[in-house]
Structure formats: structure tokens, C-alpha cells
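Possible regression after last week's pipeline update?

I re-ran a chain I had predicted before the update to compare outputs. Posting the input and the new output here so someone can diff against the archived version. Not blocking, just want to make sure nothing changed silently.
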Amino acid sequence: MEDVAQRGFAFTAAGTAARLNGALTPELYAVQRVEGHGRGSIAVNAIDDTLTFVPFRQLPLWFKWRKIASRVQDKLETWRLEATYAVSDLWKALRRRR
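New output (post-update):
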């Protein structure tokens, strides 16, 4: 059985390498790709660090797609929250007028 804590430390090191160097080795990109599917993955933080600190031009193609998808999801979530807050504020204003 694999030690999940040890694997977590390895991904933390990969994220730190991305922060410090602005790049990763092809092997580290490959491991992140294999492990990085799903929200509960232990590689999520390392992948986020990689997307934040490695220049877009230096990312492998699958990482570029992941970064674009992440930005689209973030923008959609922002619009959803803004609309929710606007409706909430309007509802509060209408209730105060009564």
C-alpha cells in the first residue's frame, strides 16, 4: 500500500519547484497529469502552483487547456455570484420599501 503522506510531500515539492524555478521537468509534468484528474487529488495544489508560476508558453499542451478551462470556470463563477448578490440586494431593497 502506498503512503499517501509521502506522495503528498512529493507533490508539495513539485509545487515548490514550480514556484522557485518557473518550470518543471517533463517527468513532473507527466506525474501531475496522471495524478491530477479529479477534485480530490493530492496533486491539485501542485497543479495550481504550476499554473500560477510557470509561464503559459512553457506549459505542456494539456496544462494549457487546463489553465484556459480554469479561467473560464472562474469567470462563470464570478458572474454567477455577482448575479446572486444583485438579486439578493434587490430583494432586500424591495422588502424595505414595504
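Follow-up from reviewer: compared with the archived run. Helices lie at 4-21, 26-35, 44-53, 61-97. Marking as no regression found.
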